[in-house]
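Can't attach files on this board, so I'm pasting raw text. These are the components:
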Amino acid sequence: MATVDPSLVTDLPMFTGLAGEDLAEILREARSARYPRNSDVFSQGEDAHSFFLLLSGHVRASKTTPAGEQVVMRYVAPGEIFGVAPAMGLKRYPATATAADDSVVLIWPSAAWPRLVTKFPALATNTLQAVGSRLQESFTRVVEMSTEQVEQRVAHTLVRLARQSGRRVERGVEIDFPISRQDIAQMTGTTLHTVSRILSGWEQAGLIESGRQRIVLREPDRIVALAEQAPGEV
Amino acid sequence: MATVDPSLVTDLPMFTGLAGEDLAEILREARSARYPRNSDVFSQGEDAHSFFLLLSGHVRASKTTPAGEQVVMRYVAPGEIFGVAPAMGLKRYPATATAADDSVVLIWPSAAWPRLVTKFPALATNTLQAVGSRLQESFTRVVEMSTEQVEQRVAHTLVRLARQSGRRVERGVEIDFPISRQDIAQMTGTTLHTVSRILSGWEQAGLIESGRQRIVLREPDRIVALAEQAPGEV
DNA sequence: CGATCGATTGAGCCCTCTCAAGAGAGGTGG
DNA sequence: CCACCTCTCTTGAGAGGGCTCAATCGATCG
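---
Top answer:
C-alpha cells for the assembled complex are below.
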C-alpha cells in the first residue's frame, strides 16, 4: 500500500508543529483502510491494537452496557483522531467504533505510539488537547442531562451535529450522514418514540424536514432558541 | 516559602518516570497554599493562570449553567492533579473548584507548563493518562444517566465515592469528607428531595448510617448489588 | 414485489419533580 | 453558656413528563 500524501493531513490539529519530513516519517508508519457503512472499525473490549485518524466519512463511537443497552458517545468527523485508547494507557477499547457512512481511515499500530511520541513530543501535546476538548464535550453532555428536559437536549444535539457535520442545502442545513431516531435517542438518553414525537412536532412547525435517517434543519436559529429556552418559558 | 519535599509526591502517577533531580526541579516551580473548607481554589470563567495538585483534603469541581443550576463534575482526591485547563489549551477554567474540606494544594503558574513539558516529556504522557481516565469516568456517568433510574445512579455514585475516598470505620466505610444530599443530587442529576428519600429508605433498611453531611456505608456489597440490579429486578 | 428496517402515533401508567411545611443539628454572638 | 439563626435533612401531597406497550404505516433494498 502506498504511503499517504502528507498534504492531505498537514493542516490537521493533530499535526500542529510537525513539519515536512517529520510528518512524512509519522505517516510512513500508518496504513489506510476503507470501512463500508455499518461495519465496525473496532469493538468494545477488544485488544487496543491500533489508533486511528478519520480521513473521510463518519464514525460513530458507542458503548454497550452489561444489560445490552447502547449509548452513542460521539460522532467522529473527518480530520479527527479516534480510538486513542493506547495513548491513554488503556489495554482495551472502551467503546465500539462503527462507520456511520462509508469511511476511509488511517491506522497506526499501538506499538508505534511510544516511539512516535518520544521522537515527536508535539504529538503528545496535540493529543492532550484533543482528549481535553472531548472531556469538555462530555461534561457539557452531563450538564445537559442533569438540568434539561428531553426536548432541549434533542435541540442541543441537533445543533451540535449540524455545526460539526452540517452541509448547506437549498432548504437549510442537512446533517451529513445517515442518522436515525434511535441514534438520537441514544445520544440524548431517551427513547426513539419520544424523539420521533419531538421531531414530528418540529416538522409540522416547519423547523425541520426529515426522512429515513435524514434530517434538514430549516430554521437553525429557532432550534437554537428551543435549546436555550428554560423549561416553562414558552 | 520553602520548596516542597520530593518524597511527598514521588510516587504519584503524575510523576511516573521522573527521578530525583528532575522532580526537584519541577517542584521548585510550585508553591503550596492552604484553602479552608468552602473556599474556592479557582472559579469558572476565570483566567486559567495556574494548574494544581492536591496534597491533602478534598476539592469539588462544579459547573454552573447560565440558568444558575449547579452540577458537581467530580471530587478530587489527594495526589490528583486538577485545574489542568492550561495543558488542554483552555484560556479559562471551565468549572469552579471548591475545597470540600480544609485542603493543601501545590500551585504551578500556567506559564511554567510549556517549559516543563518540553524538558520533561513524561509530564505530557502522565497528564494524558490522567485526562484520559477522567474522560472514561465522564463517559461512565453519561451511560448511567442514559440508562439507569435515580436509585441506581445514587448507589453507583456512593460506591465510587467510597472506593475513591472511603475510610474504614467500625461500622463500615465512611465517605471521608463532608457531603450533603444536595451535593449527591448535583452529581446524579436529581433533586435533594429524591436523594433524601432514597437515603432515608436505605437507612431504615440498615444499608447506611448517615447524618449531617456524613454517610457511612454499612453494607457496601448490598449497595453494589442495588447499583447493578436492573430496574424491576427486585 | 416482498421483506426488513425505520418512523409514527395512541393509551395508560409510573417515577420523579414540584410545592410546601417542619424538624433537627451546628455554629455564633452576646 | 445560652439563645438564636442558619443550614441541612425529612416527609407529604399532587402533578406531569416521558416511558412502556402496542399496532400500523412507509420506504428502501435485494
